[in-house]
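#struct-pred
JK: can someone run the complex with BIS(adenosine)-5'-pentaphosphate? inputs below
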Amino acid sequence: MDIILLGPPGAGKGTQAQRLERTRGMVQMSTGDMLRQAVKVGTPVGLKAKAVMEAGELVSDSIVSALIGERLDQADGTGAIFDGFPRTGHQAQALEILLGERGRKLDRVIELEVDEEALVERITGRFACANCGASYHDRFKLPQQEGTCDVCGAHEFKRRPDDNEQTVRTRMAEYRAKTAPILPYYEERGLVRRVDGMASVEEVAATIDGILDDPGSLSR
Ligand code: AP5
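RT: done, structure tokens with the ligand placed:
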């Protein structure tokens, strides 16, 4: 099963993708994570992407599509969760080609519907485990034991350099201008299911599980 999680910055795509990876053996394909890793290591892609990401703008379609193609060839889970990809019409077309070349097709696009103002609080309060990347929040999702990652037990956490209010507003404007317009492309094909992303993490998870477990919902 190959699915897209679609929604603006802070909608909860990464949180839900990580959970689906743990519970269903699917593979999270986050172009944001791939780009951050490239920046950290200092690869040619990372050197190109760093300033663009810090400004909250979009990295070029060709770079992110190539990253997804490479990852599809490496991954061997029960399906892919595309998180933060596609973000433009060109990327949506590229994804279709990349999946088709591998005998795969998209099963579902899950749109997380959210209130953008609330997302600023979500993003500026976000932090992650420095070891395994598990996602937390100062108010909404603290580790069960203070200072210890629930998933791997590590004690160090990190925050993203683009998680400040000014950059978040640019990222949201990019979403409205370039990403939201790809939804009709998937709606026409009956692939889109909407989920209330303002519900709790657990409620959002249960709704997504209901969609993925309903064979009728997945047949086309
Ligand atoms: P990327 O890393 O993809 O960031 P994003 O889309 O802005 O999304 P986020 O990771 O900020 O949010 P999320 O929806 O995953 O939310 P999360 O689950 O963490 O991209 C970063 C940059 O890379 C882009 O700006 C761009 O420059 C570049 N890039 C990446 N992909 C690209 C592409 N395809 N093309 C071009 N450029 C690309 O949740 C947020 C917080 O809220 C967390 O703390 C979480 O604990 C909490 N939370 C989650 N769900 C809930 C809930 N239901 N209730 C309360 N709190 C919640």
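RT: quick notes.
The chain has a mean pLDDT of 93.
The two ends are 13 Å apart (CA to CA).
JK: thanks, will look after standup
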